[in-house]
Amino acid sequence: MTKLCRYGLAGSEKPGLIDSAGTLRDLSSLWHDLTPERLSPQSLARLAEYDVSSLPVVEGSPRFGIPVSHVSKCVCIGLNYADHAEEAGLPIPQEPIVFLKAPSALCGAYDAIPIPPHASKMDWEVELGIVIGSTARHVTEADALKHVAGYCIINDVSERSFQMQSSQWDKGKGCDNFGPVGPFLVTADEIADPQNLRLWLDVNGVRRQDGSTATMIFSVREIIAYLSRYMTLLPGDIIATGTPPGVGMGHTPPVWLQEGDGMRLGIEGLGEQRQTLVRWHRDLPAR
């Protein structure tokens, strides 16, 4: 149907829509914000019937925030690409590896990434993001995609020295701005097959990741059904589905991100992200 977004300064974002011509339009006359409730099948169906050409055009190049407000949780799947597990020297998982990324880690697609104090092994991970549109609890694989509002890009930024300090990965994945999302959410009807999307990531202009969701171990359907057995997936929840090979940790020797480095990443049909790493300071906006 369309591409939905939130634009404007952090904390003051407005709902937006990118039409078929690539023009950003203001949705404020219809919706106060792009809240989880707006992702229901009924709400999206009503929007699909609306004449979006009547919506005001947004001039300039505004900041894009997290595409959905009030995200209750971001659930991540680790080692979900066979070729990434191979580069990490780890066995193919028999069940999805599940961890959580703190909601406070989520940020806009072009926001800067602050390097935490004492960090030494900053890394990147381009991932397909699933955005839930309706409550999913003990759903079957056959019905799983009915609960998807859309898809987006996620950069699962990681600090490997923090991550490897224990068996729990959350600490190395949950720092401020370690989860750029967007720049927009593409509704599910625009993605014919989420298991056939090319995804890539460059660091300072050098291609580091170039893969396809076709090599995911656990599919979008399987992930949603599996997670719904252990937690209720709510509208607005985001699921990061894992990364293809080429992360910094997988190089010999490893390649770690440094202050001033730039990342550019994209997924077929879902747009692009760009981030720069900056030195952390207390007054830096967290989102």
TrEMBL record:
The keyword Hydrolase applies. InterPro entries: FAH, Fumarylacetoacetase-like_C, Fumarylacetoacetase_C_sf. It comes from the Bacteria. Residues 73-277 form the Fumarylacetoacetase-like C-terminal domain. Keywords: Hydrolase, Metal-binding. GO terms for molecular function: hydrolase activity. SUPFAM superfamilies: FAH. Belongs to the FAH family. This is Fumarylacetoacetate hydrolase family protein. It comes from Bombella pluederhausensis.
